[in-house]
Amino acid sequence: ALWIRATELQDNDKYFEMAQLADWITKLEPHFVQVWTVQAWNMSYNISVKFKDFDDRWRWVQRGIALLRDEGLKYNPNETLIYRELAWQFQHKMGANLDDANMVYKQEWLKEMSEVFGKQEPNLDELLKPEGEDALRRLNLLTNKFKMDPAFMKQVDQEYGPLEWRLPEAHAVYWAALGLEKARLNPTKVKADELIQLRRAIYQSMQLSFQRGKLISDPYTRSFEFGPNLDIVEKVSAAYERAMQDEPNMRNNIETAHRNLLGNAVYF
Question: What ranges make up the beta strands (E) of the chain?
């Protein structure tokens, strides 16, 4: 009954009441994946754009991400669709430029991650072996607030990086890679299509990281720009080659994207 009512409210653009209904639905059906993905999408995509103030939009995008990360995965730690949706929120909602508030999202996320990394270049080794109260505080922030494992971040960085962990694309890769790891540990609970979605999230985010994954900050104007991350070109190319093998039905499209990638790599 709540689902029917929520659908009617969405059709009539009454998203705020729908958000309250969806909160009840998550409590009634916490192990039903669509509860979390629909509600998070609603917050990040539908409700956020109702606001003209970009700070208000950011609050709703944060709520969408936190719902998946903090609540959805708590009840469904092995559901690959939640990992895919979480990766998409970073890759598309925060990372892409389709929302005219996207630079605010990136700037606010940079502030969040600067708290984790001590307002300096990300150093995962420092968080793996924290020394001193400040490092312990930042490790606690990473693991408890952002629900991220520095050891797995290091593993992802070695396999797909080096990544700029202050930008959203790195987090898209992280959550998609973690979804693949959960699928590997629970193979009987996974559909092949879900794995394809996670792999796409990785190689698409890696391509974006190559194009604009280097953070160039100006401490005097407190602004930043993006530059190409040339260090990951070979790994991005390898990711596309693996994707051709994993998705034979999409091989022609992936080949075209791979060819464009190589052309851009030469240019950069």
Answer: 214-218, 223-227
